[in-house]
Design goal:
The chain has 31 helices and 15 strands. With 895 residues, the protein is an alpha+beta fold. It folds into three domains: 295 residues, no CATH class; 185 residues, no CATH class; 190 residues, Aminopeptidase (3-Layer(aba) Sandwich). It starts with a strand and ends in a 13-residue tail after the last helix. The N terminus and C terminus are likely disordered.
Length: 895
């Protein structure tokens, strides 16, 4: 232990011991990575593919079922029945829907009571009502509702494990309620329900009795001991809570069944029998994983009620039920999300809990807007496949030419299929997708009126447009809508929707099949079937074209952020070499590419088509050529450009041999700690900074990594104040960011003024290295003007006591670029920016400050493929740095 000024500095460990520890760390991290890789099988993509195939299989079965059922349905009669539907029946269905969703809210409230948590009324409403509405529309209802609940309840302070227990409690209650209500109804009305389902009555009684007995026994006797599901263990609820869950689930199912029952035409079936049919249809729809059980639910209801009422009237009731129970709550949820988004935009002062809730809701708004956009695309496709009412067409014929109606009908369907793909970009918060969605919504408004005076369709488009404008702030990722992979499931959904639109077309125009060959080129105001056929054909061509574009283009390639095992593996490699700035890898915001031997790695980021490695490879130089080659090949395979940012002079031959173009970026300020002294005139200003700092009450302490934890809160407060005083957020990629885990690995030079922390600088080092690099440096606005000079002077002296040889203060951009007669255009441009660019960036001031410590200046370079590649890669690197620190987002996906 040694003392420098008032800094307490521990001595360095023995080199041999460090090498042994480093080797052990590498071995442990590689073993952890191997375990992680083995545990990750089977790949999630295989599971998603299997789910997609299952959905396609269910759709194929549906098509087979509907091919027989729709023979009894006349489209015009169905629409007429829908238009004649009694207002009292619609109002009753809306009230029943409200009762059903109120029970859903109450179910969440009882689940919160079960886990011993509390949530505000807005949070409860948003999690239960909006989560269910989104789940009903998207499919995978439990999973979608779970995602919403995790966000909302997490924002109000409920732990994720508790939310998982809440979801399991709700799921168990739903299954219990469905079994209880369905079993009771089937048992009481066994004969009529058996007749409807085509089952033997005795078998139905046995199945219903077993289901009812299980529900009753659990309710009466409860479960003994805790229940374990996966890694979660939760205690059994009290009988009161179990009864409340059963009652609320029953009310939810009865309300939903009543909403459809009130819309159906008169039938000789009692409500209790219908409740049993409704429960079976709901369960089958949920098992199918098709969004909202669309098709499955309708097929069951149509099949069981066939011959007991008009199929046209039943189909009209099902259509109205979908609008009331599914679309209406979705629109209300979107409006509620947009309201919270506007609260964020207005920036009104709120309590901390309310602030977290508002921001959590705002972050969910892209998902619900994507669902709304997808639904709009479906609506436009269905609209293009169905005829226009005769009196509206007659009105149009007196005001618009035929070509305007034909064009509007055709382009409206094309916009519909494009919106199905745009919705994918909205899910990913793409600003390009948002702009395209707004433009298409505005365009479709005119087409909806011009093709058939579709006022309801235009109204829905207007609602979508308003909601998109209200949620603008959430679509901030600067890429186009197609700059992300489309899943097989997404293409399957689009294909199924287009197939369903053709089915609706043949339903609406029964005679189109036999005369299709003669209809293609028939253009008349009354020729609606040819118009619909042409529109759907155009939409199909667009969908196939977009699908082929995705299948045939070069894969974009992903740059996934590292997991904990990869970070540990990289940390072991970093410790076993002398490049201290390699510690930037442990921020967690960069992807890794390891060498085949696992002894070296590259850290990189991806922006557009640029794959940008930060610095030279980390590890033995013998591993560099192969690693550089693999990185360049990876970029090439994905139709991208490879670039290496801030490489050192001694590594240039590796990049030149790889055929890359090199240009100078600036110079790194490297303080020779071994030879530095405060004697002589060249360091008089540093001696003055020390004396002046002591008069101002400044004191310095060098805190080792193992003792940094108690100081992190104070450092975070200084960092937050420093960031608030500047425009923009925390930087990333090549700029060190304040992150707790990353800071805890570093030495910290801490300055106190009269005992209060006012400034700090973190120091990146390796176990075996003699080089140190400045990481994060921040100071309070109230600190003395000499604080930073005081800090760095003491820091240099303290590192000298620790036997370090060099301290890197970081790069001064464009420093050292001088225009000469044979200089490249980049040197001329860089020198020009250096001379006249201070109004945009403090180029000269940064070099002047670093020059106070008498450093030597070492060049830093950029190497990239192609002639213009270095310039594009440099622009992408600057954008990557400015896009912010992504390490905190790594659990949410690729940032």
């Amino acid at each position: 232990m040694s003392v420098t000024g008032n800094a307490v500095v521990p001595s360095r460990h023995d080199d041999g011991r460090r090498r042994k520890d480093a080797r052990s760390s590498i071995r442990r991290s590689m073993q952890a990575t191997a375990r992680s890789d083995s545990e990750s099988h089977p790949d999630g993509r295989v599971r998603r593919f299997a789910v997609s195939l299952a959905i396609l299989g269910a759709c194929a079965i549906l098509i087979a079922l509907f091919s027989d059922l729709i023979q009894d349905i006349d489209y015009r009669v169905m629409i007429a029945a829908l238009r004649r539907m009694a207002a009292l029946a619609i109002a009753g269905a809306i009230c029943a829907t409200a009762l059903s969703f109120a029970a859903l809210v109450g179910r969440d409230a009882s689940a919160l009571r079960y886990i011993g948590a509390r949530a505000s009324a807005p949070a409860l409403l948003l999690a239960s009502f909006c989560g269910t509405a989104l789940g009903n529309a998207v499919g995978f209802g439990v999973l979608t509702a779970a995602a919403v609940r995790y966000r909302i309840y997490g924002a109000v302070g409920i732990k994720s494990d508790d939310v998982a227990r809440l979801l399991l409690f709700i799921f168990a209650g739903s299954a219990l309620g469905l079994a209880g209500i369905g079993g009771l109804a089937c048992l009481v009305e066994a004969e009529p329900v058996a007749t409807l389902l085509g089952w033997p009555a005795d078998i139905l009684r046995v199945v219903a009795g077993v289901a009812l007995a299980i529900a009753a026994s659990i309710l009466v006797f409860g479960l003994r001991g805790p229940v374990r599901v996966g890694r979660f263990s939760f205690s059994t609820p009290t009988k009161t809570l179990a009864a409340a869950q059963l009652i609320l689930t029953s009310i939810r199912l009865i309300g939903a069944a009543a909403a459809l029952w009130l819309l159906l035409p008169p039938t000789p079936i009692s409500f209790l029998s219908f409740a049993a049919i409704f429960s079976a249809a709901t369960a089958l729809g949920a098992v199918s994983h098709i969004p909202g059980g669309v098709g499955v639910f309708e097929a069951v209801v149509l099949w069981t009620l066939r011959g007991r009422a008009s199929s046209d009237a039943i189909a009209a009731a099902l259509l109205a039920y979908r609008g009331i129970y599914y679309v209406l709550p979705l629109v209300l949820s979107a409006a509620l999300f947009a309201f919270f988004e506007l609260r964020v935009a207005v920036g009104t002062r709120r309590r901390n809990d309310d602030e977290r809730l508002v921001r959590a809701v705002a972050r969910l708004s892209p998902s619900i807007m994507a669902v709304m956009t997808f639904a709009t695309g479906v609506m436009l496709l269905v609209s293009g496949a169905t005829p226009t009412f005769g009196h509206r067409l007659a009105t149009l014929s007196t005001h618009l030419p035929l070509w305007a109606v034909e064009t509007s009908h055709f382009l409206g369907s094309l916009i519909g299929v494009v919106l199905l793909f745009v919705a994918r970009g909205l899910f990913d918060r793409r600003d390009g997708a948002w702009r395209l969605a707004v433009a298409l919504a505005i365009t479709s408004l005119g087409f909806s009126l011009a093709k058939g005076l579709a006022f309801g369709e235009a109204g829905f488009l207007a609602i979508l447009l308003v909601l998109l404008l209200a949620t603008r702030l959430q679509f901030y990722r600067p890429t186009s809508m197609l700059d992300q992979p489309f899943t097989i499931g997404w293409f399957a959904a689009v294909g199924v929707i287009i197939a369903a639109a053709f089915g609706i077309l043949f339903l609406a125009f029964h005679d189109i099949g036999s005369a299709a060959r003669d209809l293609w080129w028939e253009f008349e105001f009354d020729a609606q079937a040819p118009r619909a056929l042409r529109a759907l054909l155009g939409a199909s061509v667009i969908a196939v074209g977009l699908g082929l574009r995705e299948l045939l283009r070069a894969p974009k390639g992903l740059a996934p952020l590292p997991n904990d095992a990869e970070l540990a593996r990289a940390a072991g490699i970093i410790d076993y070499q002398n490049r201290s700035d390699a510690m930037l890898a442990l921020m967690g915001d960069k992807s890794f590419l390891f060498s085949p031997s696992g002894l070296a790695f590259l850290m990189f980021g991806k922006r557009g088509r640029s794959w940008i490695a930060l610095g030279d490879p980390v590890g033995p130089r013998s591993e560099w050529p192969e690693l550089i080659k693999n990185f360049i090949m990876r970029a090439h395979v994905h139709a991208g450009r490879a670039a290496f940012y801030q490489i050192r002079p001694d590594g240039l031959p590796f990049y030149l041999d790889a055929g890359l173009t090199v240009m100078k970026l600036g110079e790194d300020a490297r303080v020779p700690i071994k030879t530095i002294t405060l004697q002589g005139g060249s360091t008089a200003h540093l001696r003055y900074a020390l004396r002046r700092g002591e008069r101002d009450g400044l004191g310095f302490e060098l805190v080792p990594p193992e003792r940094s934890a108690p100081h992190l809160d104070a450092l975070a407060a200084i960092s937050t104040e420093w960031l608030d005083a500047r425009t923009g957020d925390e930087k990333g990629f090549s700029v060190a960011a304040f992150e707790g885990g990353y800071m805890a690995r570093q030495w910290v030079g801490l300055v106190r003024e009269h005992g209060e922390p006012v400034a700090f600088a973190s120091i990146m080092t390796t176990r075996l290295g003699s080089e140190a690099t400045v990481g994060v440096m921040r100071n309070s606005r109230s600190a003395s003007a000499y604080t930073m000079e005081f800090l760095f002077t003491h820091l240099i002296l303290a590192l000298k006591e620790l036997d370090f040889e060099t301290l890197s203060l970081g790069m001064a951009p464009l420093s050292g670029l001088r225009a000469a007669p044979l200089s490249s255009r980049w040197h001329w441009l860089g020198a020009l920016i250096w001379r006249h660019g201070d109004r945009f960036y403090n180029f000269k001031g940064l070099r002047t400050f670093k020059g106070k410590f008498n450093p030597t200046w070492e060049p830093r370079y950029l190497a990239a493929s192609g002639t213009l590649g270095p310039f594009v890669a440099l622009a992408d690197a600057v954008a990557l740095i400015g896009s912010g620190f992504a390490g905190s987002k790594k659990r949410d996906g690729n940032a």
